[in-house]
Write a structure and sequence with these properties.
five-stranded antiparallel β-sheet; eight-stranded mixed β-sheet; single chain; 593 residues
Length: 593
């Protein structure tokens, strides 16, 4: 049985249940989606949690009756009369938008009828495992000036076992939500009323995490022959008219005027890189030229689509543009794919899904160029023996693209890497290089990101690791906890002073021996000198998901050791400081090898 058909049928049954419970409710649309379905309703009173329970019970009654879902075709005029009689205004609107002379409806039970293209399962009894999840607001047709409807989301699977596994993952996903873990771990926050929505504020630990990622990226790009560039955040609108963004992307751009000239707060980095390429004559001997920038861009996103770090108004891309000759095109795509796979492995992701997105309805460039660009991308995927799906019509307006989506610990997909093949912008900007015969030729341009938006990638990292980052990425790799003598039954020896609840001699050992060694080897650490019990400090370190805890008391100071606790493993015993550092360095090297 087709799973989309099953889910679409479940949405139909939910609509029937809602109409039986609240006959005055008007129906919108109810498609299948990944993992389930939704249906939009126009109901005066908001749905409550109790209403969802009642709807589920009514759906179960309909399923147990095993009623057939009967398809019929009506002429449009007959269908209009029927739905006018039923007072279904949204269905009338949908019928008027249908270009065909006939429309199809589905009937269930004695009275329920719904405009629907189908297909559906033969009878309601085929639905075995479903669960209603939540209610959200949704504008009719997604247009803000239209009425706001209530959208009920549900999950549907072929077996109860699959549904139970999905619901278990949903609960786990709540515990991993980066919007909660980010502030909890003091990494970032996403909203300040004074600043506005969709803007990220990185706190010291989050800024350090991002710096570690950025340093990794710079090193890896330089190793692969990229040149680092930096371009302005604002550029004149004429540049964006040449690129086509002004015509095809303006609704997502912030524009403003300076001295009667229109400027754009950049939504992309490509025009800036194009100007750098164009700044001097290029030879075939220089190609390929790979320009890389950690470029911060700004996009006009509506408030309703903002979502944590995943959808923001200002974000940074690990953006690069490769200018190459036609003979180098496929090999350059190969190298980018290899770069993506190697990078994802370093960050702990080995499972990925790949899509090849083809020409959209609105595009620039010739059909021949689109065919060649698409063929080059597809050829590289085939030569690498990579499985991929065709995502028809979802390419960029200037070229087709490969999207590589990583899968996290819960098998959820995260959009990260993209490789776009572009013949159009080099032509629009008049880019050239001199070939081996002294003739001017047009280069081909690859737009690509590896991690994509750093904000989205950090969100994915937080959720994948549940905030417990691998050692090499953890902003704080270890925390030193001096044993607090004030909380001990044994008083400090005579003459041993106490500062902030810690023996001065103990802090002297930490400051003179432990800290210098950690600093020497670049181990990121904190010292917890709060006047709290040892157990409370250890518990807080666990809540903060710090990989290693070093407990230092008088015995450790006398023996020049530290007592080591490892996240997830507990007490590892006392170790010499140098021995601990050797082990931690080896662990980091193994993670990145």
């Amino acid at each position: 049985m087709n799973i989309d058909t099953l889910r679409h049928s479940c949405s139909h049954i939910m609509a029937q249940a809602v109409k039986e419970l609240w006959p005055e409710t008007q129906l919108g649309i109810g498609p299948s989606i990944e993992d389930g379905f939704y249906y939009d309703f126009d109901k005066k009173e908001p749905f409550t949690e109790g209403d969802l329970v009642n709807i589920e019970e009514k759906m179960q009654e309909i399923i147990e009756k095993n009623e057939p879902l009967i398809r019929e075709e009506f002429a449009k005029e007959k269908a209009l009369k029927l739905f006018k009689k039923l007072k279904e205004d949204y269905k009338i609107s949908l019928i008027q938008e249908i270009p065909d002379e006939k429309v199809s409806v589905y009937k269930t039970g004695d009275n329920f009828i719904d405009l629907c293209r189908g297909p559906h399962v033969e009878s309601t009894g085929r639905i075995k495992a479903f669960k209603l999840l939540s209610v959200a607001g949704a504008y009719w047709h997604g247009i803000e000036t239209n009425p706001m409807l209530q959208r009920i989301y549900g999950a549907c699977f072929q077996t109860q076992k699959e549904l139970d596994e999905y619901l278990k993952n949903l609960e786990e996903a709540k515990l991993r939500d980066h919007r909660k873990l980010g502030p909890q771990l003091e990494l970032f926050d996403i909203y300040h009323e004074e600043a506005g929505a969709g803007l990220v504020f990185y706190h010291p630990k989050g800024a350090l995490l991002r710096t570690i990622i950025e340093d990794y990226e710079k090193k890896e790009h330089l190793k692969r022959g990229y040149q680092i560039v930096i371009t302005p955040h604002i550029m004149q609108a004429e540049l964006w008219k040449t690129s086509g963004h002004y015509d095809y992307y303006k609704e997502n751009m912030y524009t403003f005027k300076i001295e009667d000239k229109e400027f754009v707060l950049k939504p992309m980095n490509c025009p800036g890189h194009i100007l750098i390429y164009k700044s001097k004559t290029r030879s075939y001997k220089n190609l390929p030229i790979r320009l890389f920038e950690l470029g911060t861009v700004y996009r006009h996103e509506k408030a309703g689509v903002l979502h944590g770090l995943l959808r923001v108004r200002g974000f940074t891309q690990d953006d690069a543009h490769i200018f190459c000759a036609p003979t180098d095109l496929v090999s350059e795509i190969h190298k980018v794919i290899e770069f993506v796979i190697d990078t994802m492995k370093d960050f702990g992701f080995s499972d990925m899904a790949i899509e090849l997105s083809t020409r959209p309805e609105k595009y620039i460039g010739s059909d021949t160029d689109w065919q060649e660009a698409t063929a080059a991308l597809e050829s590289a995927l085939k030569e690498k023996n990579l499985n991929y799906e065709i995502n028809a019509g979802e390419g960029a307006f200037y070229g087709p693209k490969i999207d590589i989506k990583l899968k996290d610990a819960l098998k959820r997909k995260w959009q990260c890497a993209t490789i776009q093949c572009d013949f159009a912008l080099p032509k629009r900007f008049g880019l050239t290089y001199v070939d081996d015969k002294g003739q001017e030729q047009q280069p081909i341009m690859l737009h690509r990101v590896i991690l994509g938006s750093l904000e989205r990638f950090i969100g994915a990292l937080v959720e994948n690791y549940k905030g417990a980052f691998p050692l090499w990425l953890a902003p704080t790799q270890t925390i030193i906890i001096p044993v607090n003598p004030v909380r001990n039954t044994k008083a400090p020896e005579k003459g041993n002073k106490i500062s902030n609840g810690v023996n001065d001699s103990l802090m002297a050992y930490i400051n003179d021996k432990v800290k210098p060694e950690l600093e020497k080897w670049g181990i990121r650490f904190e010292i917890d000198q709060r006047n709290e019990t040892l157990n409370k400090k250890i518990r807080q370190a666990e809540v903060n998901k710090i990989p290693y805890v070093l407990v230092v008391g008088e015995r450790e100071a006398n023996q020049e050791t530290v007592s080591v606790r490892k996240r997830g493993e507990g007490d590892l015993g006392r170790k010499p400081v140098e021995g601990f550092i050797k082990e931690i360095k080896e662990e980091i090297d193994q993670m990145k090898s």
